[in-house]
């Protein structure tokens, strides 16, 4: 094996409730998966197929840690999401088999530099600078799927400083978890360690230093951070 000129970056690891850690491989994100959120952003839902963007595994921030306000933005937004952790390889799986590769679930925040994303959209450019940056994927400890049971209509909620900002149910998703996994597995060979952030409900908005965020989904461990 070739020597490296500097130390390789460590693999990010998310705690698992009552278990060992989950090494993160890739982070896939589903866009506009709640109709009300798509509408508040001025878009309709494409019901032919989901669409995706990515975040680097090294954008991960573990829940409970502070999030420094990122550079070159004046409009940092919260997006509360259900995160699906993949535990087995999946390629061209059908929706009825898709849940076999799910390791577990977590609460997550897809933090977004909205002004940079909007500028990229206006110029028909990629969203990377608006979505993929340090600490932009805030993930709570993962709960093993067998310990949760089916996730279908649980409430998904985000509060900022104790005030509710986002509130819906998982049943409001346009594309269900099995449908997302099945479709995504036709584009990529999913691997153990992959995460899928499944989209956000309506109510996204700006946060500023000092704001305390807390997101919940059913009985999953809440995701929490303070903007500094």
TrEMBL record:
Recall the GO molecular function terms of this protein's record: acetylpyruvate hydrolase activity; metal ion binding
**What would be one Pfam family of this protein?**
FAA_hydrolase
From the UniProt annotation, give the residues forming the signal peptide: none
Domain Fumarylacetoacetase-like C-terminal: from-to ranges: 27-227
Question: Any idea which UniProt keywords this protein has?
Answer: Hydrolase, Metal-binding, Pyruvate
Give TM regions: none
- Per its record, how is this protein called by name? Fumarylpyruvate hydrolase
Which organism is this protein's natural source?
Answer: Yoonia maritima
């Amino acid at each position: 094996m070739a020597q490296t000129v500097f130390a390789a970056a460590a693999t990010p690891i998310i705690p698992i409730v009552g278990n060992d850690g989950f090494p993160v491989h890739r982070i896939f994100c589903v866009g506009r998966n709640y109709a009300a959120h798509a509408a508040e952003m001025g878009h309709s839902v494409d019901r032919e197929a989901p669409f995706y963007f990515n975040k680097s595994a090294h954008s991960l921030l573990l829940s409970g840690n502070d999030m420094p306000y990122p550079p070159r933005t004046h409009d940092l937004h919260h997006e509360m999401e259900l995160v699906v952790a993949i535990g087995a390889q999946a390629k061209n799986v059908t929706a009825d088999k898709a849940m076999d590769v799910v390791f577990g679930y977590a609460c997550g925040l897809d933090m977004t530099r909205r002004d940079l994303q909007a500028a990229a959209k206006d110029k028909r450019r990629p969203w990377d600078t608006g979505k993929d940056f340090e600490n932009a994927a805030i993930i709570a400890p993962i709960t093993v799927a067998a310990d949760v049971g089916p996730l279908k209509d649980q409430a998904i909620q985000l509060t900022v400083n104790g005030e509710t900002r986002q509130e819906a149910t998982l049943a409001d998703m346009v594309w269900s978890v099995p449908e997302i996994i099945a479709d995504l597995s036709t584009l990529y060979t999913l691997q153990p360690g992959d995460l899928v952030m499944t989209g956000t409900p309506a109510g996204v908005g700006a946060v500023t230093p000092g704001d305390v965020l807390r997101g919940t989904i059913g009985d999953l461990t809440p995701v929490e951070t303070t903007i500094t």
